[in-house]
Structure formats: structure tokens, C-alpha cells
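Minutes, structural biology subgroup

Action item carried over from last meeting: produce the C-alpha cell record for D-galactarolactone cycloisomerase (Halopelagius longus). EB confirmed the sequence was re-checked against the source entry. Recorded below for completeness.
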Amino acid sequence: MEVTDAETIPVSSTLPEGEAMGDARGFGRTRETTLLRIETDEGTVGWGEAFAPGRIAEATFDELFREDVVGMDPFEVESLAERSYTDPYHFGGDVFVQSVLSAVDVACWDVIGKTVGRPVHKLLGGETCHTLTPYASTMYFTERDRPIAEPIEEAVEAGFEAAKIKIGAGVESDVERVRTAREILGDDAALMVDINGNYRPEQAVKTAKAIAEYDITWIEEPVPPENETGYREVKRRIDTPIAAGEAHYGRFEFKRLVDDRTVDIVQPNLGRCGGLSEARRIADMATTENVAVRPHIWNSAVGMAAAVQFAASISTYPHTRNVPEPMMVEFDRSDNPLRSDLLETPFDPSGGVLDVPQGPGLGIEVDDDALERYRADG
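Output recorded by EB:
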């Protein structure tokens, strides 16, 4: 078997004027990413996602990957990550190289699963897994004024029993947002907060201590991802677990997070970390050192499918059959047609349960009509 065709497909969706949303760093109206469709000489199609703008992803694929991918046996996919670090030399750690590698890798695993008739999570060594626990990623900062309680109330009404909210605009604002979320979610729900790297260490520590009484499951990106000494300082001074990884790429950056005990939870994004092959290596490193793994998901439906399959494969070590912390996966509650419209059967987290596709490969079918609506290269 060999890959005979590969196509990069940029997709985007833009919110109406005045409806921008985001985090403490700023607002945005456009969501964009790049899908990759590969086809083999046996007619099998595989899908992947490079969580990067279309023109950059296309140029990176054509310049650095196309010659190797077209003609390769998808079953040899794990060697591709190795080669991305050594040929071309020095480029392997680049975010766009890792993003395109992610797309190729996931698409090949999709083909492999379809060829052998198994879902990807089983191929990665996971046990049979039918459901995961979704958490609502919500309470974004918005351009339009709206009550801060509204998005949490909507998430609870939809059945979510866990949520992650945006903070990072000052201690007073942080406390108000966390207090509101906790009151609505109730005492038993998992509540996470995301600063998106908008603080210096001292600011992050002040907020962490101010919200500690609300039983925070983790604080995400308290300082910028490149501020390694800042992470270590925050880790030393607070008791709340720290999570990071959406802005880290490839096994070597994650190895530093794990080896230095910089974080308690690593969060690889399957559209940027190097794909399923690299994510499996990252998970092996993390679980070996008893660091938790929770994938970051802010992708299209294809990237989400990869993350769900990956999450379903992750070891529960050191837990046995009694797992006090179920595997949680992020479900972005913003208006995102690239997630909600691109599949024949969209992911549905209602009732606080997210089904793991059991079909071969990623277990998804891309809706061709929807794909054409959101293509950004027409």
C-alpha cells in the first residue's frame, strides 16, 4: 500500500461583526485551520488536521513533506516524526513543521485503522473505551457585553458536569468569574481556569491563592509557554495543579515539561504536537513520571476526532479499576461550525458524556457539502 494523493484543504469560519470572542489576551472573529486528505492506491482515504493557517500549512507540506508522503506506506508513519527532526535539519521543532507533521501522521493512522478494521485508540494500545467525560470550555471574554453567568448556566443546562473558564484580567475579575462559575456548577463539579499565559509569575501566584478556596482542578498556562523559569516559580509557590502544552510542539519540548516537573498535566494538541505518534510518546513519558495527560482541543471536528481517539488510549496509571479522576476531554462551547458542521455525525457531549467513535480509523465521515462551504481556498 502507498499514498497516491495528498491534498491540503484550508477551512475557516468567521463570526458576525461585534461578536468576537477570546481570552484575556484579546478577541478574534475568525477560526481557521487546515485539513489534509490522503488517498492510497487501494482507494482508502485518511483525514488529518494541521492546526495552522492554510497558506502556511500548504507551503510547508509542499516544500518539506509532499515528496516523502506521496509514495510512502502509511504503516511506516512513525518513522516520519523521526525524519522531521533530522531532514531537513534544524526545522523539526518549528510549530508549522510540527503542525503539518500532525496532519500527515493522523491521516496515516486513519488509513491504518480503516485498513485493519480497528479504531485508532485500539491501535495505540488502549483498552476498549466507549465514552469519555467532556468538560465545557467556556466563559470566554467577549466583544459583546453579556452576563458572565450565562455561558456557565447554558453549559449546566446542556448536562456538563465540568468546565474550564477564561480568567487572566486581574485578581478581582478572576475571583468574580471563578466564584460565579463555582456557584452555578455546584461543589462537586470539576472547575478549571485558563490564563492563556497573560500573567507574570507574581500575578499568577496572587490569583492562584485568591481562587484556591473554590477548589480548582488545574490552572492552565499561568505564564507564557516560553517562560520556563516562570513556570517553575509558580509551581514552587502554589498548591493548585498546573497544566500546559497547547503551545508546545514535539516530544522534546514536552520532555522538558515532564523532566523539570514544570507542570502536573500535559496537554498536547493533536493538530500541533506532531500527531498521534508523537502524542503517544508524550503520553508514555508523562505517565512514566506520573504526570497526567489531558489533550487540548480547540480544533475542527477532524482534530477533535484525533484527540478523542488519543484520550481513549491513554493509560490510567497509577490507578487500577478505581479511577478517582476520569479522563476528561475539552469541548469548546463557542460557535464553531468547523467542529459542529464538518462531520456526517457530529460529536455530541450532551448529558455529560462524549461517545468515542468505534468505527475503523478515526471513526468519522467528513461531510463533503459542509467541507465545500467552509473551504478558504476558493
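Discussion: The longest helix spans residues 95-116.
Next step: EB to file the record with the rest of the batch.
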